[in-house]
Specification:
The protein is an alpha/beta fold. It has two domains: 233 residues, Type I PLP-dependent aspartate aminotransferase-like (Major domain) (Aspartate Aminotransferase, domain 2); 126 residues, Aspartate Aminotransferase, domain 1 (Alpha-Beta Complex). Helices cover 40% and strands 14% of the residues. The longest helix has 34 residues. The radius of gyration is 21 Å and the shape is globular. The protein binds pyridoxal-5'-phosphate. The site of pyridoxal-5'-phosphate has 15 residues, from helix 3 and helix 4.
Length: 378
């Protein structure tokens, strides 16, 4: 007997599928009948539909969000020894793409309110080797892009947005993915727009850069069997594109539903008198948050999480160890204490379930359990 069985899933993709099963079925059937699996009409149609949703000039689909980052850095010619500034509080792929090119990830600490890189620290991290900045719109909240762009312009650096968690988010009225030179998206199943497997996409308003990404994703060739540059094989499958086209049509509504559930959490936390016990996600003016995750924080995170698990409330931790302390980056010679705010966030963050299909009683159960934990404490 499992006394800890969750009362409801952390993320319910089966509920989402139930709603769109017929549409997905006919999209898959269409691709199977065509027997065209690599690029082709489905992929270019998806690229066009994605561009018009985001409001960018070009979109180039690829095999994953990680590859979107790698292709973007290759497109701006990041080389061994170059430095790229980013946050240590993100998924591995952000700094991984930099390191894969033998460039150096240079970390700056985060803003504790937003969990995004503290753009005020960028200036002091710039050296003559700095080539680019990768702001991450973590959990669906846009980074402080005014400051990022100011610093980038002053030092002639490229801005590559990691928008993997933030499709549909906007900053000062402009969609993420249009705020830098290139924008990187992921269609990993748990993202707000998730495929039936891996997928990714690069956005840009620069046609020449879009063309470079297109060439790089197909072995560095424009013309079959003639290679101009060293590229890779990183294409979005036609099957994924067809499925993502269906889901893209639902995305604006799903995003509103996520935002409504975030508002509902805020109301419930206030009603249960919990706002002095846990910190709720920031929502800075001008930034539209799309809540890929709803992340609260508490110094008692581990105990709280254990208690919630015993009450059947599923939670996750993004991320338990910041990148500068990961074994893979030991050669960067960082130690505990180098980025104290990122380190503290890693100890205190707790992600609660948030998705369009999440129901009010489930949210009430989650917040009630948190209230029970603190009632037993104080
Ligand atoms: C998911 C994610 C990626 C990488 O996406 P994949 O499609 O899984 O390769 C990159 N950066 C961040 C912040 C992510 O959350």
């Amino acid at each position: 007997m499992d006394g800890d069985a969750p009362l409801f899933p952390y993320l319910d993709l089966r509920a989402q599928f139930a709603e769109i099963a017929v549409e997905i079925g006919s999209a898959v059937q269409r691709v199977m009948e065509s027997q065209k699996f690599i690029l082709g009409h489905e992929v270019s149609a998806f690229e066009e539909e994605f561009s018009s949703l985001v409001g960018c000039a070009s979109a180039v689909a690829c095999a994953s969000g990680s590859d979107a980052l790698l292709l973007s850095l290759m497109a701006i010619d990041i080389r061994p020894g170059d430095e790229v500034i980013t946050t240590p509080f993100t998924f591995i792929a952000t700094a991984g793409a930099v390191a894969r090119l033998k460039a150096r990830p240079v970390f700056v600490d985060i803003n504790e309110e937003t969990f995004n890189l503290d753009a005020q620290l960028l200036e002091s991290a710039v050296t003559p080797r700095t080539r680019a900045i990768i702001p991450v719109h973590l959990f669906g909240l846009p980074a402080d892009m005014d400051t990022v762009r100011e610093v980038a312009a002053r030092h002639d650096l490229a801005v590559v947005e990691d928008a993997a968690q933030a499709v549909g988010a906007s900053y000062a009225g402009a969609a993420v993915g249009t705020l830098g030179k290139l924008g990187c998206f992921s269609f990993f199943p748990s993202k707000n727009l998730g495929g039936a497997g891996d997928g990714g996409l690069v956005t840009t308003n620069d046609f020449a850069l879009a063309e470079r990404v297109r060439i790089l994703r197909t072995h560095g060739s424009r013309r079959k069997y003639y290679y101009e540059v060293l590229g890779m094989n990183s294409r979005l499958d036609a099957l994924q594109a067809a499925i993502l086209r269906v889901k893209l049509g639902h995305l604006p509504r799903w995003t509103r539903m996520r935002q409504l559930r975030a508002e509902r959490y805020r109301r419930l936390f206030a009603e249960y008198g919990l706002t002095n016990h846990v910190r709720l996600p920031a929502s800075p003016p001008g930034a539209v948050h799309v809540y890929n995750q709803f992340v609260i924080r508490s110094p008692e995170r581990d105990d709280l999480r254990g208690f919630l698990k015993s009450r059947g409330i599923p939670t996750e931790i993004y991320y338990p160890l910041p990148l500068h302390l990961q074994p893979v980056f030991s050669y960067l010679d960082h130690r505990a204490g180098d980025f104290p705010k990122a380190e503290r966030a890693s100890r205190e963050v707790l992600a609660l379930p948030i998705y369009p299909e999440l129901e009010e009683p489930q949210q009430v159960a989650a917040v009630q359990a948190i209230a029970n934990y603190f009632a037993g404490r104080t």
